[in-house]
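Fold it.
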Amino acid sequence: MTEKQNIKVAILDLYAGVENEGMRGFGEILMRYQEKNNLDMTVEIFEVRNNCEVPGTDFDIYISSGGPGSPLDTEGTEWEKKYFGLIDQLEQHNLSDDPQKKYGFFVCHSFQLMCRRYNLGYINERRSASFGILPVHKTKAGEKDATFEGLDDPFYAVDSRSWQVINPNEKQFTDLGMRLLAIEKERPHIDLPRAMMAVRYSDYFIGTQFHPEADARGIKNWLLKPEKEKEVIDEHGRDKYNQMLEFLDDPDKLMHTQNTMIPNFLDEAVLSLQD
């Protein structure tokens, strides 16, 4: 009987100690995936912003979380230098002849940092925060991307952000061989650009502005807290709040995205490692 290969996953925590549902979401997806596929998987968490911790290059898969605050103001900080130093090393590894590539998934704040790194668009603060279970539209490139396989167009995901990346820099996308995979919902009555919602940075790196790790239980617990209920209703209205609670009970919306997108990414990474 052959021994199972150990797959090492690093989760880069960019929440800086702020209460969140994202880290639990990543952990539960990985646990389910490991059990379903009978894998030997090791998961380690690194406190990037609080403790300036970054993993080495000895992991197979890297998942980088969302987090609070501006994606512009941290430029030059010690933790960000170390973070991008790691990305440099992983990219160099993936350009090498080593057949075992390193896979990366970048969510929300991490997505914004990566877009800034590559100068893929204009980053600014939104007029008002976007929060809810909202439709996300695939581009033509997104329709062909394996990570989006099994998702409708549009599909639904948790969108929670005060910042955005808009006005795609098409020359940079072309020069760097990157692809815009998804964009923000249509807003016909608002004359504002639609934000970039997902980017394929390379064959091995992908990022999303939305939260594919979010699950109905976590978001419902969060929404039912009295202070969060008041916050959402004050910002978005009672109807929007009630609609969010309804969407949480719809298996074709949030849970379908959670059960599809990151598992698709893991399928690709794990298959590559086993090959």
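Residues 120 and 170 are 8 Å apart (CA to CA).
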